[in-house]
C-alpha cells in the first residue's frame, strides 16, 4: 500500500493493485477497478515512483525471506 494525499491535505493508504487508470486533468485522478475515484496532490510521476518503490521493497522482503528459509538447517 502507498501513502497518498487528498486535496484537503489528509493522507491515506491506497492498495496500488486496485488502480485501473491515472490521469492528470490537471489534478491527478486515480480510478480504481471497483469504480471509485480519488483526486490526489501527487503527480502521475510521483505516483509511479511510489508504486515502483513499494514493489521494489516487496521483492526485497521476499528475497530476504527466501534466503533466511534456505539458511535454516534441515532436520
Main pleated-sheet profile = 3 strands, antiparallel
User: Total number of helical segments?
Assistant: 1
- Distance between termini? 37 Å
Shape label: elongated
Instruction: Please state roughly what percent of the residues sit in beta strands, choosing from under 5%, 5-15%, 15-25%, 25-35%, 35-45% or over 45%.
Output: 25-35%
Describe the structure.
The protein has one domain (2-70). Helix content is 37%, strand content 31%. The chain has one helix and five strands; from the N terminus they run βββββα. A three-stranded antiparallel beta sheet has the order 3-4-5, with no helix packed on it. Strands 1-2 form a two-stranded antiparallel sheet. The protein is elongated.
Task: Give a topology summary.
Layout: E1 2-5, E2 11-14, E3 19-24, E4 28-32, E5 37-40, H1 44-71
Antiparallel strand pairs: 1-2, 3-4, 4-5
Q: What attributes characterize this protein structure?
A:
single chain; 75 residues; alpha+beta; 3-stranded antiparallel sheet; two-stranded antiparallel ribbon; 37% helix; 31% strand
